[in-house]
């Protein structure tokens, strides 16, 4: 998966993940209205609106953005119907050849982690294999330690999939736990986690110098990200916090390796909600998203 | 919610949560066969088997166990169809008057946390309120700090719901992060998180001395749990790790307060898979679960 992601980034010429994290006020009335007419004022209508919105975006960015990163919370909000729209979004993006990173941030132990690993490995029921989630990779939370991660590493190996483990997140309160210094080693919690992530990834290297076990490193902490690039030379970074959260291409320049590789930068609102901030697009969601993605690609090259 | 939980524990006479975490080899062939006949060899059949299995258990324990704790991973494994079975399980347990704790261990920031908070607060779509998940409380992961927790605390207040935040988990590798000592304060990571959980809960007290913001404290670490009871006198504990993970009633005696309150102890396999370890029950899942729950209640009283 990590090799496929790197190849796809090179083919598109930009390390962009489009965060498909729709909220209802981002979705044009025409899409909501059509689905309420079809399904009634119901969670099914809400879920169908999310999916239709995502399809308009995917149709316009699949050739210039290597990956989508749907945030499952935005779908779980609408119950099981919403969750189905998440899976259908992933399936649709894959038909267009995109890499799908399920932003699920799961973290649980042993047999539970094995169950969650179905997000990338699928499931076998009565001898038949199913892949209900259609994801190439997922994000994971490391708070419970290796027990929560190892079952996913096994699937990375057996199914050529990837995982992105939270190391330093982009939100302000990430400092409450992640930035505290640990007495035994003098490292911060996130630096300690970075070491664990590197070691978990050693047995899952791709052919391009990066492991299938990757990290989430927020764009909003430039100094920490730069230091992590040095301490984690074989760990690919998924970078949230670009755009709407305030970071620019300049802030994250040193998160990349000396060949300009090693990162995938996510933008959600900045791309999927671009039609609302640029009135010239009317409610042509996809057209505005494409223009925003192209602006982002240019910013990342500067 | 915390007051309702405490009242329900007193009415049932035992602080038991039944962990509805089914895996396929716990489910009798008659249930799987019936659903495959009805739905074909499909994820729909798998999901329907999970739900039927859970209903047999709920029908036999609703009057002696105050709560169920379905682990959503066991349902997510089977895709969106499985997730629907999770929600239907919760809805069914509520029709029997049980408290439902969704074991989702979500943890994400800001607008994403707000979306996840639909697990307890429901969602409003075009002015209409929906409650797709039917949970009284959920479990949460604190790694991202207050940003991941605050939106849930608000729902605890506005909707009388509860949250259980991971403090010290029951798995062996929990020590990799949670047990390390922090330099500034000399506390371990989990002790530091315990302090955060206490402070997040101060504004959400129930009337019985406990906050709606509660903690997950594993039964497998007796010393730490005993210390946490002292340092968190107003924090209710959800205790995994009893039974199949090795802990007994004796190990967790000091997790309770001096009135014998303040804890809800979860058992999953020990109850829902009891029919397989006690052949006298045949495949009468519910009967075996009831007997196991009664044994557990007795053990917790010793």
Describe this structure in words.
Two copies of one chain form a homodimer. In chain A, a hairpin with a 2-residue loop joins strand 4 (123-125) and strand 5. In chain A, the strands form two sheets. Chain A has an eight-stranded parallel beta barrel, surrounded by six helices. The first copy, chain A, has 14 helices and ten strands. The first copy, chain A, is globular. The first copy, chain A, has helices at 2-12, 29-39, 43-61, 73-76, 79-95, 110-116, 118-121, 150-159, 175-178, 189-201, 222-231, 269-272, 274-277, 285-301, and strands spanning 16-18, 67-68, 99-106, 123-125, 128-130, 137-140, 162-168, 213-217, 237-239, 263-267. Chain A has one domain (2-301): TIM Barrel. Chain A is an alpha/beta fold and 302 residues long. In chain A, helix 2 (29-39) crosses helix 3, helix 3 (43-61) packs parallel to helix 5 (79-95) and helix 3 crosses helix 14.
